[in-house]
Design brief:
With about 325 residues, this protein is α+β, with helices and mostly antiparallel strands. It is built from 11 helices and 11 strands. Helix 4 runs antiparallel to helix 7.
Length: about 325
């Protein structure tokens, strides 16, 4: 995350939990069950993410590790800063590596798919209602963060996790964590280039309107499968608002309140995302994949019970 004046500081359905379980890899107090992200989607992910279980069997978490070559101290600083995030789509870290440990952070597990995996499961771009619900919920949370004096500076398709009750933002401060302020953030590992606001790509400091650009790119991805589609590839009902978010000039981008109004339609102002996230907001195949993931993780937890052999995953592990 970034201070507003500059900066502050997903199991794929095809994963096989048992395969991860047999290697008995440990990170801090957790045993890795399986990777969250599906490499077949070929969408850059700023972190290595896993579903993991505590050695006492009481806690299942989503656990993140830095990419190889990433500054571990910066990674941990971003994770620590995330503890203070507010908003319904925020997923702040609840545990972080201690002094002398390899870097990691974790937050409680809930069945969730990275947005690219959700598109793969669905078989293509998501329905308009789903895109609207995603956008309104994420915009509401970004508005809360901006009110805290923060800029997320890392909204991207991989950073959005889809759960049954709504999206969650992950990969805290991925843009800033990948490069210092004032340095170009283009071409860096783990960053989805189409989600990077032009002013940050050229070395500018993260600002709230950069989050609007990145959210527009993420909604474009949800609606088309691309973060930078041609205007006429966007659904007609969403074309204008998403195109405005993707304006190269920050002054032409909508404010978050305007974006929420445009995405929320006729829903009451106080509950737009709640209405949009009601029954039927997710396609059936995505709901089925979430249920499958939950069952697979439960089975893996049983097979991992009593496991105590500590090892650390290689930095080259996917």
């Amino acid at each position: 995350m970034h201070a507003a004046d500059g900066a502050v500081g997903g199991v794929a359905t095809g994963a096989k939990p048992g395969r991860a379980a047999t290697s008995r890899r440990r990170v801090g107090p957790y045993t890795l069950i399986t990777a969250l992200d599906d490499p077949h989607t070929k969408v850059p992910v700023p972190e290595r993410r896993y579903i993991a279980r505590s050695s006492d069997g009481q806690h299942t978490v989503l656990l993140s590790l830095p990419l190889s070559g990433r500054d571990p101290q910066r990674f941990l600083a971003e994770a620590e800063a995330s503890r203070y995030l507010l908003g319904s789509c925020a997923a702040p870290a609840t545990s972080v590596a201690g002094a002398g440990e390899p870097p990691w952070y974790a937050h409680p597990y809930l069945p969730a798919l990275p947005l690219p995996t959700a598109l793969a499961v669905h078989g293509g771009p998501l329905p308009e209602r789903t895109v609207r619900a995603l956008g309104a919920a994420l915009a509401e949370t970004l508005a809360v963060l901006h009110g805290q004096g923060l800029t997320f500076a890392g909204v991207s398709p991989a950073a959005v996790l889809i759960a049954a009750d709504g999206p969650r933002l992950s990969c805290f401060g991925a843009v800033r964590a990948a490069a210092p302020d004032g340095a170009s953030r283009s071409g860096l590992p783990g960053l989805e280039p189409g989600s990077l606001p032009p002013e940050q790509s050229s070395g500018g400091r993260p600002r709230p309107l950069g989050d609007v650009y990145a959210l527009g790119a993420t909604l474009a991805y949800a609606a088309t499968g691309y973060t930078t589609p041609e205007r006429d590839e966007l659904p007609a009902a969403l074309r204008t608002v998403i195109a405005r978010c993707l304006s190269h000039d920050p002054r032409n981008r909508p404010q978050l309140a305007e974006l929420i109004d445009a995405l929320g339609g006729r829903a009451e102002a106080e509950s737009r995302s709640a209405v949009l996230l009601g029954p039927g907001w997710l396609p059936g195949r995505v709901i089925a994949a979430l249920a499958h993931q939950s069952a697979a993780v439960l089975t893996a937890e049983i097979s991992l019970a009593g496991q105590t052999s500590p090892t650390h995953p290689s930095h080259s592990q996917n």
